[in-house]
């Protein structure tokens, strides 16, 4: 048997052979507490699964999936099978199947410390143990035996025996009967969205009620939970408010009542993802519970994620893709509907600004990597599936759907969705199933649109070309479209072209706008002929399409001088995004981008855009600036950040954002003394609340520059002896500027698997410091020597974290690029997913070297 990595061909063969009638799963997790009695092996729990299923070809053979240290007993149709003969560690061989079958598997499954399967977390604050599951794409087989593929849906009944005093939750409503939590049978769902939660969670309840036009009423019990240690910070009222707003929005637009009974939302520790759409029991990373003061952008992100997961109840849970090729059928739709409902149903009415500036930036980066792929991807196996939860599947897909709504019309789009839900409820679909529903409602042929936008990869660039008459009027304005040689597809774009000029008050405002269908390499915008000469031409004004915006020379000069005068927040966000793409593409020197951030970011009203600018400026300095200029750039950024920090309104979210950015770029003795003074209370900036989270943000640069030591970090942990405090301390410990510290951190991550997923992430984050290039230089060669072993020996999540996080990107030289190429050339037979990660890191490094060369030319 080929092991854990289920292929698409195997899944299709099994789906053609089997259909599943139902699961009964019993889990005994009392072993989660107390000392482990497993002789040094992994801590385990008992898992007993009964599967009733049919076989289309009696006498045939197949297999069930199970990743477990041991199987105690296997029974097929009343026959006891030898576990040693039929179980190989990842699969249970099933031979001589009948037309109707019953499989019973009694196994010892392992608790997870990597966030995959049934994760066990011990809270350092009070010693309490918390359990939760995370499965996507294929980790439910680490908890119970099953057929682990999305198109073999079935109803599930779960029972959980938990330690005394605990509460357990699952997808359905539960009750405690004779010491066992028994949960109601689910609707037919896929294995990867089943869920279990157990422990002494803090639990808050509410309810939602909706009466429909036909007089029927839907009542949904609402719940929200977190660790007890986070209960004082848990603003469940806001979570419930957004939840109810979302349920109203989706009921108004989908015409299909929420189908899964209750709606619990659990905020859990050491979570690898943002959230997961388990029906009736959505799980989120607990960082969405804010221990200190945060900006409105943080609340907006949380609201967007809550709505994203809620959209999945229809797109993904009710109707599920047949195989991971069509992952976009759930993730692209959830990403789009999250932003759509955010703007129309909540207080965050500027959500499309965040989408244009933040989400699409993620997509543009992913779409220019050598691993770029069509939105409808070619997913050969589960490792491919794991890596395709990326910016293309989410943000590019959502951007394309935003265009589709404009193309077919909002009403036709929503009516198509309604027909899709009703036609395929509790079933599985492919691309054509959705397109056919949309064609019915819109009357449009979507085949060519699909080929251009869903079935090809790459991002187009749109540039304005302006011809003026002698008296300063536009004689012709055209939009030029280009594509990369590797992905030459020129797509149809519906765009708005905006013309901007200064008003009498000095504001840069739009005075003319036209929409046009761009098709081919050059499209004339006839409607704008005869307009006054613009100071700025903004292609893709209002963000109607997915493209990289370029500027003509005059528009770029205007932005260099007046970007801060651009009054419209969305137009400003689009311009910043375009300037960042120019920097990444080595068409604008990094120092020029940093200069524009220093001159104009202080006037940015949208806090999410400001935070993005800070992140981009830091990346530009660390990776894209010429090495000889970095020290100057760091000083300029620190001076600019401190200036804006002091100018910001006391107590405002802008002040908090500039304070965090100042800490991120501080390096001089004076800057570090100020941070230390703010920590100790000997320095003060009016209105700045140095709460616990800000204290850790200040401590990291103090530690990485050798000002704060291990004793200081120990004292801070005593002050914040929590799970969050421990992660911060681990990150800061690894950031210390010492060869011995770096060796220890490397060993903890690479040579040992004792750290949990969260502490692996924290250690890597602290290990990699832009100010410590020389200390990290010896690890470049070691990286290439160990990554194959890491990929083979660790879980895929840890493997991804290590391969991505420890790539020697700070050793940004042609030598590192050559070493990467040598590894790729000599490892043609390495796991495709591993090669993809290295190829992506190699591309980022090559891009950085091109950008550095561009930055050098800025002074030649």
What does this entry show, briefly?
The protein is α+β, with helices and mostly antiparallel strands.
Jot down its keywords.
28 strands; alpha+beta; 8-stranded mixed β-sheet; 5-stranded mixed β-sheet; 43% helix; globular; 860 residues; 28 helices
Task: Give the helices and strands, then pairings.
Layout: H1 8-17, E1 18-28, E2 44-55, E3 62-65, E4 70-76, E5 79-81, H2 83-86, E6 91-94, E7 100-110, E8 117-122, E9 129-134, E10 156-161, E11 167-170, E12 174-177, E13 180-183, E14 196-199, E15 202-211, E16 217-226, H3 236-254, E17 263-268, E18 275-276, E19 281-285, H4 296-312, E20 320-321, H5 328-345, H6 351-367, H7 382-387, H8 392-408, H9 410-424, E21 428-429, H10 431-442, H11 447-453, E22 461-468, E23 474-482, E24 493-502, E25 508-518, E26 522-524, E27 536-541, E28 548-549, H12 553-562, H13 569-584, H14 590-600, H15 607-624, H16 630-647, H17 653-665, H18 669-680, H19 692-704, H20 710-719, H21 723-734, H22 739-751, H23 757-767, H24 773-776, H25 779-793, H26 796-805, H27 814-826, H28 832-857
Parallel strand pairs: 1-10, 16-17, 17-19, 20-21, 22-28
Antiparallel strand pairs: 1-2, 2-7, 3-6, 4-5, 4-7, 8-9, 9-14, 10-13, 11-14, 12-13, 15-16, 18-19, 22-23, 23-26, 24-25, 24-27
Helix pairs in contact: 3-4, 3-5, 4-5, 5-8, 6-8, 6-13, 8-9, 9-10, 13-15, 14-15, 15-17, 16-17, 17-19, 18-19, 19-21, 20-21, 21-23, 22-23, 23-26, 25-26, 26-28, 27-28
């Amino acid at each position: 048997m080929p092991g854990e990595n289920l292929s698409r061909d195997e899944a299709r063969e099994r789906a053609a052979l089997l259909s599943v009638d139902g699961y009964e799963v019993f889990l005994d997790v009392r072993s989660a507490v107390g000392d482990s009695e497993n002789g040094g092996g992994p801590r385990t729990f008992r898992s007993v699964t009964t599967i009733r299923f049919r076989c289309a070809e009696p006498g045939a053979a197949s297999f069930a999936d199970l990743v477990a240290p041991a199987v105690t007993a296997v029974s097929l149709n009343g026959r006891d099978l030898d576990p040693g003969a039929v179980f190989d560690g990842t699969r249970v061989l099933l031979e001589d199947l009948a037309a109707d079958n019953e499989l019973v598997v009694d196994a010892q499954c392992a608790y997870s410390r990597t966030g995959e399967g049934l994760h066990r977390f011990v809270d350092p604050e009070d010693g309490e143990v918390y359990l939760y599951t995370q499965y996507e794409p294929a980790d439910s087989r680490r908890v119970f035996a099953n057929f682990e593929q999305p198109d073999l849906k079935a109803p599930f009944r779960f029972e959980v025996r938990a330690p005394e005093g605990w509460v357990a939750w699952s997808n359905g409503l539960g009750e405690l009967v004779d010491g066992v939590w028994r949960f109601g049978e689910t609707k037919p769902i896929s294995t990867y969205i089943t869920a279990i939660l157990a422990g002494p969670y803090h639990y808050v309840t509410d309810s939602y009620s909706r009466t429909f036009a036909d007089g029927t009423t839907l009542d949904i019990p609402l719940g929200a939970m977190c660790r007890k240690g986070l209960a004082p910070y848990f603003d469940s009222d806001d979570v419930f408010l957004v939840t109810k707003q979302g349920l109203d929005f989706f009921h108004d637009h989908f015409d299909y009542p929420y189908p899964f009974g209750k709606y619990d939302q659990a905020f859990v520790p050491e979570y690898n993802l943002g959230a997961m759409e388990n029906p009736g029991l959505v799980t989120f990373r607990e960082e969405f519970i804010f221990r200190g003061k945060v900006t409105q952008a943080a609340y907006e992100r949380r609201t967007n994620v809550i709505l994203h997961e809620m959209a999945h109840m229809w797109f993904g849970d009710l109707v599920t893709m047949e195989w991971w090729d069509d992952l976009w059928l759930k993730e692209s739709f959830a990403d789009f509907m999250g932003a759509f409902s955010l703007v129309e149903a909540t207080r965050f009415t500027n959500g499309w600004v965040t989408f244009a500036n933040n989400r699409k930036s993620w997509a543009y980066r992913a779409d220019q990597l050598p691993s770029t792929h069509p939105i409808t991807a070619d997913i050969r196996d589960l490792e491919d599936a794991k890596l395709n939860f990326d910016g293309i599947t989410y943000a590019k897909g959502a951007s394309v759907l935003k265009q589709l709504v404009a193309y077919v019309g909002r009403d036709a789009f929503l009516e198509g969705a309604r027909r899709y839900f009703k036609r395929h409820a509790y079933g599985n679909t492919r691309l054509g199933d959705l397109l056919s529903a949309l064609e019915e409602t819109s009357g449009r042929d979507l085949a060519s649109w699909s080929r251009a936008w869903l079935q090809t990869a790459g991002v187009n660039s749109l540039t304005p070309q302006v011809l003026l008459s002698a008296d300063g009027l536009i004689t012709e304005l055209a939009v030029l479209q280009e594509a990369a040689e590797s992905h030459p597809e020129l797509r149809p774009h519906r765009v708005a072209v905006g013309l901007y000029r200064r008003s009498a008050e000095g504001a840069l405002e739009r005075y003319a706008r036209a929409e046009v269908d761009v098709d081919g390499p050059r499209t004339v915008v006839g409607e704008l002929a005869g307009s006054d000469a613009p100071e700025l031409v903004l292609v893709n004004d209002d963000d109607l399409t997915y493209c990289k915006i370029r500027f003509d020379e005059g528009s770029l000069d205007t932005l260099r001088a007046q970007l801060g005068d651009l009054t419209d927040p969305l137009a400003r966000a689009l311009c910043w995004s375009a300037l960042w793409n120019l920097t990444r593409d080595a068409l604008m020197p990094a120092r020029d981008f940093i200069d524009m951030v220093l001159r104009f970011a202080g006037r940015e009203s949208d806090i999410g855009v400001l935070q993005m600018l800070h992140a981009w400026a830091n990346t530009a300095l660390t990776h894209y600036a010429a090495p000889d200029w970095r020290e100057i750039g760091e000083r300029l950024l620190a001076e600019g950040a401190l200036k804006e920090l002091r100018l910001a309104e006391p107590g405002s979210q802008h002040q908090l954002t500039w304070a965090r950015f100042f800490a991120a770029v501080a390096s001089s003795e004076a800057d570090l003394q100020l941070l230390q003074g703010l920590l100790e209370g000997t320095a003060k900036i009016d209105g700045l609340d140095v709460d616990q989270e800000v204290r850790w943000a200040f401590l990291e640069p103090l530690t990485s520059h050798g000002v704060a030591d291990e004793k200081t970090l120990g004292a801070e942990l005593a002050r914040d002896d929590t799970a969050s405090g421990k992660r911060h301390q681990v990150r800061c410990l690894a950031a210390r500027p010492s060869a011995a510290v770096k060796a220890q951190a490397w060993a903890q991550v690479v040579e040992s698997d004792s750290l949990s997923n969260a502490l692996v992430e924290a250690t890597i984050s602290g290990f990699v410091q832009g100010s410590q290039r020389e200390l990290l230089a010896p690890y470049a060669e070691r990286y290439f020597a160990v990554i194959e072993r890491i990929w083979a020996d660790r879980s895929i999540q840890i493997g991804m974290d290590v391969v991505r996080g420890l790539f020697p990107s700070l050793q940004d030289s042609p030598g590192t690029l050559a070493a990467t190429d040598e590894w790729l050339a000599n490892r043609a037979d390495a796991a495709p997913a591993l090669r993809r990660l290295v190829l992506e890191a190699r591309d980022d490094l090559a891009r950085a070297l091109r950008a550095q060369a561009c930055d050098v030319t800025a002074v030649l």
